[in-house]
Design a protein that fits this description.
Helix content: 40-55%
Number of domains: 2
Strand content: 15-25%
Largest sheet: 8 strands, mixed
Shape: globular
Structural class: alpha/beta
Distance between the termini: 41 Å
Length: 369
């Protein structure tokens, strides 16, 4: 491979470690960056001389992945790189953007690998430092890897995705951004805009839906669990019902998205008509992963606050009822004692308050109404 972009991977959790290691194995020059308050995460990697990588990797390689630079200094991490990949939960992506923003250079591309409207949420930060006009900001529907941080310097990849969606904001910057990202992940699909990226199937289609039918098990009885192995037929029906609403709203916004089971079959090459059949297969990598209450609640906060709530509001704009979506929010917040609507992302937060459908589409396409 020639003309490989130099990459900075930001975030040292499950996804960031897997991505940094696997891309290094592919021959990319990779800098790994962590926020200063979490710099202790880097010490084991430095001591190990890199990241130990195992599993079903995209690169097809395992072993010790050596990195170009390991740092908690944002300026050092992104100096001279073309592509900056942020791998954090939705609630932390703006923290990284804020740390990186003063040092972003002309022509760099920033991609948040699990988007949750990160480009629109970060606009004000980038404007304050003058970085907005210098860079291209991209969102991906969901991270490339199904992975875990087995030990402080050991990443294990259970599987990788063969189908992912991305778009820049505004979408008028898509051609150059897509050409760059395709050098890293050729399986990446170009979405029309960040509306389509966020409505593309991913995490919001499954976590709350598995929780609802087995709420007593998850919230009261179990300390640890193989989360996806608990997918029931009722959960599968709830996934399908939510999908119908998600797809209707997406279509009303001129977006083309598929069902979650269809995406699972494309992304992971799984077999089955629904999640009950897919996750019921004992060889499915999803089923082998352990989870706990804290992790489950974080995922629910991420999915509901950063997708369900904006989706409800976008549904109102296009005049579509979403009773299943609203019911899931109401039920889950009873079980978790957390107000997702009060803490959720609104159209005002996304810069789309009081816009109609045409204005919203213009905004995500051109950056203005």
């Amino acid at each position: 491979m020639r003309n490989l972009p130099q990459i900075a991977v930001c975030g040292c959790g499950n996804a960031g470690m897997a991505m940094a290691a696997d891309l290094s194995m592919l021959g990319f020059k990779v800098n790994l960056c962590e926020l200063p308050e979490f710099k202790d995460n880097l010490d084991p990697i430095l001591k190990n001389g890199g990241i130990s990588l195992t599993g079903k990797t995209y690169s097809g390689k395992t072993g010790l992945a050596k990195l170009n630079r390991i740092t908690d200094n944002p300026e050092e991490a992104i100096e001279g790189v073309e592509l900056i990949m942020i791998n954090t939960p939705a609630m932390a992506s703006k923290v990284f953007v804020e740390a990186l923003s003063p040092f972003l250079a002309e022509g760099q591309t920033v991609i948040v690998n699990t988007g949750y409207w990160a480009s629109l949420r970060s606009k004000e930060i980038l404007m304050k430092t003058g970085a907005l006009e210098k860079i291209t900001f991209v969102e991906q529907n969901v991270n490339t890897y199904l992975s875990s941080k087995i030990e402080p310097s050991h990443a294990h990849i259970y599987n990788f995705k063969r189908d992912m969606g991305m778009s820049a904001w505004p979408a008028s910057k898509n051609p150059a951004a897509y050409a760059l990202v395709k050098k890293v992940y050729p399986q990446m699909r170009l979405c029309k805009n960040v509306l389509e990226t966020n409505f593309y199937p991913g995490n919001p289609s499954v976590h709350a839906q598995i929780n609802v039918p087995k709420a007593e098990f998850f919230f009261e009885r179990a300390k640890q669990f193989r989360f996806y192995g608990e997918a029931s037929m009722c959960a599968s029906k709830l996934v399908d019902a939510f999908d119908r609403e998600r797809i209707r709203v997406a279509k009303a916004l001129d977006c083309d998205v598929c069902t979650y089971p269809e995406w699972l079959r494309k992304a992971y090459l799984y077999e089955g008509e629904n999640i009950y059949e897919i996750f019921g297969n004992v060889s499915c990598e999803f089923v082998t992963r352990w989870a706990n209450d804290a992790g489950n609640r974080r995922l629910l906060k991420e999915d509901l606050c950063y997708f369900f709530i904006p989706m409800e509001q976008l549904a109102e704009v296009v005049g579509i009822d979403v009773p299943v979506t609203k019911a899931i929010v109401e039920i889950i917040q009873i079980f978790t004692d957390f107000d997702y609507r009060a803490n959720g992302i609104t159209l005002k937060d996304l810069g789309m308050q009081d816009m109609d459908k045409k204005q919203i589409i213009n905004y995500v396409t051109y950056g203005y109404v």
